[in-house]
Amino acid sequence: PLGFDIDPDEVGLPHFDRAVIDRFPGLLSDVLKVAADDREYDLMLLSSLTVLSTIMPGVSGMLKKQLYKPPFYTLIIGPSGSGKGCINVVRKLADPWQDYIFDISKAKVKEYEEQKELSDNYKAQVRAAKGKKPVGLPPEEPVPVCQKRLHMSGYTTTARMIEQLDVNSPYASFLYETELESVNNTIMQDFGGYSYVLNQAFQHERIGCSSKTNGTSFIEFPELGFLATGTPGMLLKLIPSTESGLYSRLLIYRITGRADYQPLTSVDDTMCSVRYFERLGQRVLDMAVHLEKSPTFVVFSDKQRKRLDRYFEREYNNVRVFGNDDVASVVLRHRLIIFRIAMTLTGIRKGETKSTAEEIEILDDDFDIAFHIGTRCLSHSLLVSTSLKHSDTNQRHKLPDAQVDLFDVMPDEFKTSDIIDEAGVRGISRSSVFRMLKKAQEYSLVVLVSTGYYRKTEKGKNVKK
To answer: What's the superkingdom here (predicted)?
Structure first.
């Protein structure tokens, strides 16, 4: 075993540090004014960032020589009655933008249908005249136009999802579900196994679809944002193992601690709270319209890149040596998620100020916010990952840092017997210790001085710094 079983609530995953993240753009600050407590603040922050990441037309950036757009995936996990439902009001931020694109698309569909009718009538006249051409120029055959609908529900067939991703391009689609059960039930059906679509859309990879009815088609650069909430049991049905590629693509927030009863207030006496988010939605629309007219390329500063590399090199080595290799991709993809959050914050600021700058370096404040959110949620994801590889019905969590802590408490020079004794106290097996020591040598955290004696390297002395 990798350590004793724990209750996630005992870990006390901390809330976001407001001293770091309160330097938001004005729009986000106004969204978070209605949060009743720290938990609601965290959930509304993550959900609003996820929603807004899908409303960044023309915003892009490069990471590892790959072009990326801002949309990312967020999954909020917590027991029933833990307050997950507070995010539902945040969805209203997207309504005006989605309606705006729908209406423009509807007008183009109507224009296509009118041109198609003229073309069909002309062909009918030619047939009726037995080949004689009617007077006047023949109308051009119009290019088919389909209706854009940016919102997607969890209960969507794979074929329909692929079709809609294609139709909605160049805009990002948004899959939103307050009940993860809807996604689970659909994915388990033959017609709805769209997990691979989620995986490929996250990376903007080409998605192919082939059927007898519709032939073969490809989406070259799919854009999709995803936001859902669910219970720990629902998560296990969606992702039973960390080997699933979908798990590493999710920004996960695990609700822990006691849930307090929320009393009723006089705020419910008027429609003000509903209209408040409707007004914020109009601000989002204004921002998006400006961004669409003024493309934006977002870049890190050298200082920001170095800070990311220092942190993620350490975390990557730590999961390779002290954790499961399965979650190495979780660590690496959180680097991309941080970039996407930073792109979203940059886009919001540009839209609010009506800037026309084409290339923007991420502000240090926005980088700090994105880095804090991404690294804090990485700790949530690593905790949840310890429960996913068990096949029994009872979920068992482990401390994700158990082996790191064991290695960290050992002196700079130690014997094999010393670390095995300490591991026994911590509920870590001998085989896990030997496996850890082997990997620690591979990643240059220790050197073998002589049989049974190890010395930490400088890198090994700083596994938690």
So the answer is: Bacteria
